[in-house]
């Protein structure tokens, strides 16, 4: 589905587990990822842009930059290898017109809060649908932020995507904050929040 602006994934229950539809992809071969992307981009994004080709998108797809995210590597960015998703994102230049494909080590749990700035469009989080990667954090609406104020349902999302043209493939987004006490009503704990347009899952 193509995401509209301001889509807020904020289900009422805690322990939100979003397993993306792409997990049903038949195989994890590289060629299948490319086919899946092409299919998604033509059927979803194509539709939301009036059915025609989106020149910015086409151009971004033709100049891909590949990053590998593996917790146990020590390359510190060399050859595009990083330990954390946030570190890799920090190294994407503002207003990049290339597609950055962040290949997250399969079957790995990344315990980090991820924020993708509006200024970083065309980013893909990619893993293996048969052995998906999990991104998990545990903030709730009542968790206090750096400013000492509660984060609220919006600020507590594990992953926030502000930018356009985001793609996720084979990724589980999770918030594993404990269930609220019975009667408590401020314990929302969303896993994924997408504000950008033309996102694809
Ligand atoms: C990125 O684009 C925004 C919006 O067009 C602009 O305000 C900003 O200065 C640009 N930043 C860079 C680093 O080019
Ligand atoms: C997003 O990026 C812009 C440009 O680099 C920066 O000015 C802004 O503070 C960033 N926003 C957040 C919430 O980090
Ligand atoms: C969230 O996770 C961190 C790191 O694992 C832990 O220190 C903290 O106690 C957890 N917070 C809650 C509210 O469970």
User: Which ligands are bound?
Assistant: 2-acetamido-2-deoxy-beta-D-glucopyranose
As laid out across the biggest beta sheet, the strand order is 4-3-5-8-11
Mean pLDDT: 80
Proportion of β residues? 15-25%
* General form: globular
What Rg is obtained from the alpha carbons, in whole angstroms? 17 Å
Low-confidence segments, ≥5 residues, pLDDT <50?
1-28
Number of domains: 1
Number of helices: 4
Biggest pleated sheet: 5 strands, parallel
Which percent range fits the helix content?
10-25%
Structural class: alpha/beta
Which series of helices and strands comes N to C? Answer: EEHHEEHEEEEEHEEEE
Number of strands: 13
Distance between the termini: 7 Å
What is the topology?
Elements: E1 7-8, E2 16-19, H1 30-48, H2 55-61, E3 64-69, E4 81-82, H3 85-90, E5 99-104, E6 109-111, E7 114-116, E8 123-126, E9 133-137, H4 152-155, E10 159-161, E11 167-169, E12 171-175, E13 192-194
Parallel strand pairs: 3-4, 3-5, 5-8, 6-9, 7-10, 8-11, 9-12, 10-13
Antiparallel strand pairs: 1-13, 2-12
Bound molecules: 2-acetamido-2-deoxy-beta-D-glucopyranose (3 copies).
One 2-acetamido-2-deoxy-beta-D-glucopyranose binds at residues 138, 177-178.
Structure description:
The protein has one domain. Helix content is 18%, strand content 24%. The chain is built from 4 helices and 13 strands. A 5-stranded parallel sheet has the order 4-3-5-8-11. A 4-stranded mixed sheet has the order 1-13-10-7. It has a 4-stranded mixed sheet with strand order 2-12-9-6, with no helix packed on it. It is globular and about 50 Å long. 34% of the residues are buried. The site of one 2-acetamido-2-deoxy-beta-D-glucopyranose has 3 residues, from loops.
